[in-house]
Write a structure and sequence with these properties.
single chain, alpha/beta, D-Maltodextrin-Binding Protein, domain 2, 16 helices, 43% helix
Length: 333
């Protein structure tokens, strides 16, 4: 787990990066502490970090602590155990928990991304790459049943490739360790989020040859969720949290990659500003972020189609039980 980072200690940095921002004077002891466990720490989630760095959560009365779980299974465990109030992960995990009979099941209340955020990295430049180039190759993939792996396999099937028979996909490596394994010589290809994909390019050990976000189409990739009991007991916190996220989304959709990179740079101290800008631009160009946070029913249906295609769905879960759009709809205003 990443070291927890408190919002208030970073607020001044965010204000300096963004210019003049009006933040209400709220005493620290008046803020409601909330822990958000995120599946990964990636520029892919830029709107969230904009909201974090510009003090939007504090504006909504929330003292937010960010923790990186490195995997949807770990995020779900943190939410179910009460270690985190809110989880940020692929919503397939909420379907799995629901179908396993969880009484206090986890409900999705805001969708952040609408495309996959990972990239296929090869050991050499391949300007004419085709997905059929993976036949017979060794690829470092994702956890079985997780969105990164399922979207990868979905693309393979769309290109007439059998994920089990036509190539070897290593799913044994921890979510946050595949880039290091690839750098160390494992695999001929790896599927990576940013900034890991660009870092491998900068090391000279890998080259981005395809975007899973582009080739899979619009997919409800990551969303925010909380236990149904927590949402019932703390609707004002869920609403404030969603309001802050919407402000971050509005900022990202109305500012340049350079401006966005300036704001979120403190979140990625190991990446220079030029690299962060390039990655933000790459994600913006492929229409990664929604304009609102509403998790539409057709998106939930598509997600379950992908789960069925991957053989990971025992039965379909009802949209009305696992998605609540009330907070996202109010946040638009």
């Amino acid at each position: 787990m990443m070291k927890k980072k408190k919002l208030l200690s970073l607020l001044c940095t965010g204000l300096l990066a963004a210019g003049a921002v009006s933040v209400p004077a709220i005493a620290e002891d008046a803020l409601q502490p909330v822990t958000l466990n995120e599946v990964a720490h990636s520029i892919f989630y830029a709107p969230q970090y904009v909201a974090y760095e510009l003090g939007y959560f504090a504006e909504e009365g929330i003292d937010l602590t960010l923790v990186t779980g490195f995997g949807a299974d770990k995020v779900m465990t943190a939410v179910l155990s009460g270690e985190a109030e809110i989880g940020f992960m692929g919503s397939e995990s909420t379907i799995y928990a629901y179908n396993e009979g969880a009484s206090d099941y986890v409900v999705n209340f805001a969708q952040l991304t609408q495309r996959a955020g990972n990239f296929l990295v090869a050991r050499e430049e391949m300007p004419d790459f085709a997905w059929t180039d993976l036949i017979g190759k060794d690829v470092l993939g994702g956890r079985k049943g997780g969105m990164p792996e399922m979207v990868f396999e979905y693309i393979l099937k769309q290109n007439g490739i059998d994920p089990q028979a036509d190539l070897s996909i290593d799913q044994s490596i921890d979510f946050g360790s595949t880039a290091a394994a690839f750098s160390g010589g494992q695999g001929e290809f790896t599927v990576e989020f940013e900034p890991s994909a660009t870092a491998l390019e900068q090391e000279g050990v890998g080259y981005v040859v395809a975007s899973l976000g582009v080739d899979s189409g619009y997919v409800p990739y990551t969303s925010y969720s909380a236990k149904s009991s927590y949402m019932e007991e703390h609707p004002e916190i869920i609403q404030g949290f969603t309001n802050a996220l919407q402000k971050g989304m509005d900022y990202v959709n109305s500012h340049t990659p350079e401006e966005i990179a300036q704001v979120i740079a403190p979140q990625f101290p190991d990446s220079d500003l030029e690299t962060i800008t390039a990655i933000v631009d790459r994600y913006a160009q492929q229409d990664t972020w929604k304009e609102d946070l509403i998790f539409q029913e057709e998106s939930f249906t598509l997600l379950q189609d992908i789960l069925e295609s991957a053989g990971e769905l025992s039965k379909r879960a009802p949209y009305e039980d696992l998605v609540n759009t009330v907070y996202a709809e109010k946040a638009i205003g």
